[in-house]
Amino acid sequence: MSGDLDPISPAEAVEMYHDWAQDEHATSTVKAEKPRLRAFVQFCDEEGIENLNSVSGRDLFKYRIWRREGQGDDREPVRMVTLKGQLATLRSFLKFAADIDAVPPNLFDQVQLPTMKNGEDVSETTLDPERAVAILDYLEKAHPASREHILLLLLWRTGARSGAVRGLDLQDVDLEGKHPRVSGPALQFVHRPETDTPLKNGENGTRWNRISQKAAGYIEDYIEFHRDDVTDDHGREPLITTQYGRPAGNTIRKTLYKITRPCWRGEACPHDREIDDCDATFLDNASKCPSSRSPHKIRTGSISWQLDQGVPPQVVAERVNASLDVIERHYDKTEAVERMERRRRQHIDQLDLDHDPTEHE
User: Hey, is 13 helix, strand or coil?
Assistant: First the structure.
């Protein structure tokens, strides 16, 4: 079986794959793949597989069970959707391994991806629209035009990924609506990988998004009164800043975890915790609060909200730079009756995308 193959250790092959992936995949994808394949290398070590040439379909099946049961250091049993993602990465790796004569050409076909059922591949934990409105209301009153306010406002209004919002520069924001092809205030997401702000889908992610007059007003106030007058490491002028320049992705995540905790807004804890004894009250532990939400969960909630408001899925897909299939499978949380009602509304009228979700009766 391995007569025409070149011997190579699993660890060395994985390193070669990561080097290759840097030119082929988005940075976020490469980062996500590393721990997934680290688990496969650990499995090979435990099984005594020193040469990738010898990996068989039976080994791949054993690995699937090994991962499903959470085998490995500091690991727990994984959800089916997580297992599917890890096995998909393994398939991609084995296709590459075949190209470098490390495994047979069709070995990747023997990695069977689990079939999702009953919504197992859809995350149900999002930022609920009512909570988003409540948090934005609070920020308007207590911290208007603050960095926290503008960050959540942009993420919720556009449904963009946090990396796209992080990459915005002052020059990307048209608060006066001067762009000839865009009516009203707008901002542009631009793929700039050479200066550390790539978009997940590369050049295909470059796009204009309209924002409301109200949002534009808050952004203008932020720039005038709260934005740190700094440049980033590449001499660019970020829209969202810290005193040191453009915020790191982890800084944005921590900010969102912080402001989505109910106790931060002075509300009673919905989880029956004693505030004085709760570790999640500390900024570094904010993610431990069951009510805190990551950037992706805010994106999920925003996209579902736009769909619920009657915006056609294809329009939402263009605004948030995702495929129509992904939008319909992963982000549309409404029940069948609501979907039917939405379809009925869509041929009557569409939501004005200038509408601000914080302006409610």
Answer: helix
Structure tokens at 56: 């068989």
Q: List the end-to-end C-alpha distance of the chain, in Å, as a whole number.
A: 70
Ramachandran area for residue 316 (φ above 0: left; ψ -120 to 50: alpha; else beta): alpha
- Give residue 236's domain range: 129-296
- Rounded to the nearest integer, the mean pLDDT of the chain is 85
Q: Which residue has the tokens 């505030």?
A: 275
Instruction: Please state at what angle helix 249-259 crosses helix 295-308, rounded to 10 degrees.
Output: 60
In whole angstroms, what is the distance from residue 38 CA to residue 13 CA? Answer: 11
Q: Within a domain: residue 96?
A: yes
Given a cut of 60, is residue 352 above it in pLDDT? no
pTM: 0.65
Please tell me whether residues 178 and 288 are part of one structural domain: yes
332: left (phi over 0), alpha (psi -120 to 50) or beta: beta
Residue 248, domain member (yes or no): yes
pLDDT at site 276: 84
> Residue 52 is part of a domain; what is its CATH number?
1.10.150.130
- Classify the phi-psi angles of 48: left when phi > 0, otherwise alpha if psi is within -120 to 50, otherwise beta: left
pLDDT at 73 over 70: no
User: Is the predicted pLDDT of residue 183 greater than 60, yes or no?
Assistant: yes
